[in-house]
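Sample intake — Geranylgeranyl diphosphate reductase, chloroplastic
Collected from: Erythroxylum novogranatense
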Amino acid sequence: MSSSLAFKSFTGLRSSTAETPKRYSQAHPISTLINPRQRLQTTASKTSPKLQNRNLRVAVIGGGPAGGSAAETLAKGGVETYLIERKLDNCKPCGGAIPLCMVGEFDLPLDIIDRRVTKMKMISPSNIAVDIGQTLKPHEYIGMVRREVLDSYLRERASKNGATVINGLFLKMDIPKGGDSAPYVLHYTEYDGTVGGTGVKKTVEVDAVIGADGANSRVAKSIGAGDYDYAIAFQERIKIPDEKMVYYENLAEMYVGDDVSPDFYGWVFPKCDHVAVGTGTVTHKGDIKKFQLATRNRAKDKILGGKIIRVEAHPIPEHPRPRRLLGRVALVGDAAGYVTKCSGEGIYFAAKSGRMCAEAIVEGSENGQRMVNESDLRKYLEKWDKTYWPTYKVLDILQKVFYRSNPAREAFVEMCADEYVQKMTFDSYLYKTVVPGNPLDDLKLAVNTIGSLVRANALRKEMDKLSV
């Protein structure tokens, strides 16, 4: 990443469709689901045809947080729902942090949350550690989950609400060539759970498709959604001695520096009986194992005697795809590119986008009674962009400013020691809003930030002198 402050143009959410966006009115937005057992109700008038002797059929491809949340919402809303997921025991190499608002908003049981993190350490390239979390209220925490537990729970809940969960590998999709009501034909290989089984080739006809199949989305390829830059996340799950696990009981660590990643950060996050140690990079993917070793070395005294019990790697999108919608096919989660810069967070945004897309389909179909069209699904994109574009923009700028060099990272860690910064950061993270600040405190923060960057630049000049 260049040390220059000249920013590249942000590939943002608002310009993420290849075609010129159309505007549609939404006089009757779907209400937020408060009672999980309550059926979604809509009253919008429709001009699309009413379905005869059947309900709307929708396939959700991918069974992660985006797919599970979408399938549950669709099934509750009267839509005939198919959820296709190849690896029902899949463990994604994900730090596993979820914000507090997700626990209540998605009615998650507390027993699937491994740890409630109330303390964080941000550790600079020179190993200066700043404690973060002093501003948290007694009831506030960051939840740490294992993806195999969370994803399985969301799929099972979708199934209990009427979705058909298929253990299958999505292969391709035949896009209808004419007619607003012609079905999409999905080709997939279904497995019966037998180890080494070859599976059976099958097809299913549906009226709409939600692509929730991750960074390497086949649904995205089917609609020509375009490519994006991506990071490689590498993570090791390490079982450490019980006496060392006490240190990480409610503590997470984040390491920044060129040694652990040239454009991201390394982490040590606590799980049920082990820690997840990982890192990621966009610019130097071939060196990911070297960065992972550096992350382990930075934390070595605290994880000494640990045994690696699992190694995971996975691509993570860096920005939204050029197209996220075509006809009656929409992308959500990682398939759409909804991972934030700077923090690399994706779980909440995946689940939220899956639910919002499904709500748009339920509303547009009047609880599965009518056919939907592209304008119905576009309401999801318009609502998503309006709600979350500021968050993505702010984090993109922060990454460009503070992850560009070790001196800038030192400035970033120094800035994190400020109590106001911590309050604003945690409030925004825990509740997923860009929190408006106090004007006077914002001015002080701006002055302190500039001061930190000036000191960091002075430090860099001194280091340059030593290297001559």
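Post-analysis note: The mean pLDDT is 84.
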